Amino acid sequence: FLQLFLVEKAGRRSLFMSGLMGMLVSAVAMTVGLALLSQFAWMSYVSMVAIFLFVIFFEVGPGPIPWFIVAELFSQGPRPAAITIAGFCNWTCNFIVGMCFQYIADLCGPYVFVIFAALLLAFFLFAYFKVPETKGKSFEEIAAAFRRKKHSATRGAKAMTELEDLRGSEEA
C-alpha cells in the first residue's frame, strides 16, 4: 500500500536501485549469519532480520518497480507483448529458483546466498547504467532519451528528439 505513494515521491529508478542494494546487503548478512551460526548462537537473529529486510527491500524495489518501468517503456501497441514477456521471465526465474534452491543450498551450505548477492550486484550495475528514470516522463520523452543514447554511442553526435525528428520529416 505504501508503495503507491512512495513510487511517486522517490522515483522508479531510485527505488529499484535502493531495493536491489538493500537485498544485496541482506543477502550478505544472511551469509554471514549462516556461516557464523555454529560459533555464535545469536547469529540466528541476524539471519532472521536479514530475511525480513530482504523481503522488505524486495517489496520496495524489485517487486513492483519493473512492472511500472515495463509499462512506461513501451507504447500502447507493443506494451501487452512486453508485459507478457516480462511476466514469463519473472515466473520462469521464480520457478527455477524454487526448484533448484534446495540443491544449491546442499551444495553451497551457508554460502548459498553469495550467488544471490553476486546476481544482485550485476542487476544493480545494469540498472545503474541502463535503466532510465521514467517518473513524470511520457513515452515519447523516454523513447527520445534512448535514441539520444543510441545515436551518441554510435555516431558521437547529438541525436534528435522525436519532435525534431517529426519536424524534419514534415519539412522534407
Automatic annotation (TrEMBL):
Keywords: Membrane, Transmembrane, Transmembrane helix. It holds the Pfam family Sugar_tr. Its main location: membrane. The keyword Metal-binding does not apply. GO terms for molecular function: D-glucose transmembrane transporter activity. The chain crosses the membrane at residues 20-42, 48-70, 82-105, 111-129. Residues 1-135 form the Major facilitator superfamily (MFS) profile domain. This is GTR2 protein. It comes from Crypturellus soui.
